[in-house]
Write a structure and sequence with these properties.
374 residues; alpha/beta; TIM Barrel; 12 strands
Length: 374
Amino acid sequence: MTVGPLRIGPLTVDPPVVLAPMAGVTDAPFRGLCAQFGAGLYVSEMITARALVERNARTLSMLRFDGSEATRSVQLYGTDPRTLGEAVRYLVGEHGIDHVDMNFGCPVPKVTRKGGGSALPVRRALLRAIVRSAVAAAGAVPVTIKFRMGVHDQLLTYLGTGRIAEEEGAAAIALHARTAEQLYSGSARWEAIAALKAHVTTIPVLGNGDIWEADDALAMVAETGCDGVVVGRGCLGRPWMFRDLADAFAGRPVRPAPRLGEVTEVMLEHARRLAAWKGQPEGVKSFRKHASWYLTGYPAGGRVRQRAALVDTVAALEAVVAELDPTLTIRPNALRAARGHTNGPRPVHLPEGWLDLVDDPTPPEGAELLVSGG
């Protein structure tokens, strides 16, 4: 099976693979490392519109690119059409951004209880105003939106959200096939992606959820008819997954999982990139969570894992890696072991009276975040 390129406005994404924005993960060093293994679209950590408009220093620091990114892609969060429009104009005009992705899928309680993230599509008039404002401000730059199935099984919004995005000029949409209540638990329901694809017919529909191996991406496309895939937790500690995806979509054989020696070489390159980007020890400390993901499935031993979780210099990580047997192979089925978030299900708290305001375009009070990254 071969799958052709994805068109998102003027952009060609070949293979049709998108790196999902992940807080504390998809910084420039990680995006560059993933792109080294295969082409695709690599989206930044979440940037909040309010913080951008107010020129928050931490937020502006997250708008750095490493020079290797041919397409500058930023995910934007916001709940006010005017603020989002201003933020998009700034991104396009001052930072030369090539693609804006909007977050309507965040299930974090501090966000949903204020009416943001995956709670916002309930307010369909407000959602429409936000997408319209962003698309108008972006001009020729494509705007996409990512969302979940809905708040919970009794409040599904994804079909309406997709139709609004299509009508207001979004260049593509992506569905994480879980509800906000599910968080990251259970299985992604790919049948919802198929339903969305049948409902939205003039722009690309991408699927997200439970892509742990390259074959999963092919299966998702075959089962749902989606135009491309969004990969999140499956690539944690496995940036070479984008090479596997490129091979799979091109109809080439996918290589076996690397031996531990190859894994540790990538680990060290990742840590060095972060150290160069943020300095030591900050950069290496931010690598610690990645160390656990890289070693997932390999019989590295608890002592080595503990030491890797405490490193604060590249030299310290090199010393840990030197103790490992480079010939070790990954355990059977370990590629399918969940990485990153596994929490859920959990009840979703919405603002009082939220369900009575579905056609009210007024932005919710207190939902604008000043902290980017999630």
